[in-house]
């Protein structure tokens, strides 16, 4: 579990990373409308679930066994889960018409890469917040 203040910090950092990777100017957090902020917060809240589904855990501290990157298979599976999360969130706020509200298989590669960007950054961004992403078996 990540405390609320770290969820917001992760959401902010992910938002900035997304814009950087797309070579876009990031809208300042304070200037984003509430639904944009909530979309980023929802992604940050769900990150531990995605990592757990991949057999990974988030633990406090800089652990020696921390993961600095995900395997290609973990990245792909995590990106698929992030897309499902985004679809669920988007529909939950009443937005039912969007060209990306389709299955993963129907997305083109540039759109899939947007989900990969988010998932790829998790070990580094969580590390900046004082956490380590480790294999779940090493958490004991």
From TrEMBL:
Protein name: Ryanodine receptor Ryr domain-containing protein
Origin superkingdom: Bacteria
Organism of origin: Microbacterium bandirmense
């Amino acid at each position: 579990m990540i405390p609320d203040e770290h969820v917001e910090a992760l959401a902010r950092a992910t938002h900035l990373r997304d814009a950087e990777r797309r070579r876009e100017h990031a809208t300042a957090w304070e200037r984003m409308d509430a639904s944009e902020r909530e979309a980023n917060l929802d992604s940050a809240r769900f990150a531990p679930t995605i990592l757990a589904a991949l057999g990974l855990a988030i633990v406090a501290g800089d652990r020696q066994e921390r993961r600095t990157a995900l395997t290609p298979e973990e990245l792909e599976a995590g990106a698929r889960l992030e897309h499902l999360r985004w679809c669920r969130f988007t529909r939950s706020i009443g937005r039912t018409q969007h060209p990306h509200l389709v299955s993963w298989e129907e997305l083109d590669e540039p759109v899939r890469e947007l989900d990969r960007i988010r998932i790829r950054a998790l070990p580094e961004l969580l590390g900046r917040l004082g956490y380590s992403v480790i294999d779940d078996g090493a958490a004991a």
